[in-house]
Amino acid sequence: MTQEPTGGVQKPSSVEGPKGGFSTEAKRAVYAAIFGRRTVRCFRPDPVPEDVLARLLAAAHRAPSVGFSQPWDFLLVREPKTRGRIGQLFGKAHRAEANLFDEPQRSKYLSLELDSLSTAPLNVCVTCDPTRAGPIVANSTAIPEADLYSVCLAVENLWLAARAEGVGVDWVSLLDRAELREVLGIPPHVVPVAYLSLGYPKDGFPEEPLLESAGWGERLPLRSLVSYEEWGRRAHEDRWEELDALLEDS
Ligand SMILES: Cc1cc2nc3c(=O)[nH]c(=O)nc-3n(C[C@H](O)[C@H](O)[C@H](O)COP(=O)(O)O)c2cc1C
Prior knowledge:
The protein has 250 residues and is of the alpha+beta class.
């Protein structure tokens, strides 16, 4: 069996608490990573050390995957020439997207600082190889795109581990897939799922998503997204008050 980096990574047995869960401190750390994870779009120039990067990739590689297919690959991109070409793809797509909005939304969109590529010291392209597990992937016949979902979970694992390590991440989806494939030499059957910027945040981790603080969107109330037994059947107000109180106390 291959050894994976575990420096600083604790085994579940070392953070065990009552009832098979984690200790209070370990639970807090997990939720702190989840709630404190942010998209970071402006970075300091210092590189992500190799040991930190190894842990992030190991965390991504521990994601669940349909039929244990592990369809991901991680392509690390550091060379300025390659990054410059990808920056051009972004500029083109960004301008095209801006033109889809009418004023005043267009100006607002253009005022959002969405370009993480120009400052990130490292990019990682996370891909999906649908052929990884052979012609028939266990458990995926009803949902053929389950391999793509698996890759997204690997990205989320990396993103959460990065938050714990103090490393910021942006998912740059505004890139033409065919052109990205060509620049990075990705074979036609492999899907580039996520192009990520990584680095240490220049201004720390924002409390709120940029798109929220800039008034572009707001977080939906959880209660408007949960149904009971049947689509759209909501809980009574007092049930939510009870749940809110439980969250406050925990
Ligand atoms: C699939 C996916 C694609 C995204 N694409 C972009 C993108 O192209 N550019 C960008 O600036 N942020 C992108 N984001 C980040 C979202 O804008 C961000 O997650 C959202 O605004 C909430 O902010 P938070 O991540 O700080 O909580 C993407 C996120 C996801 C999950």
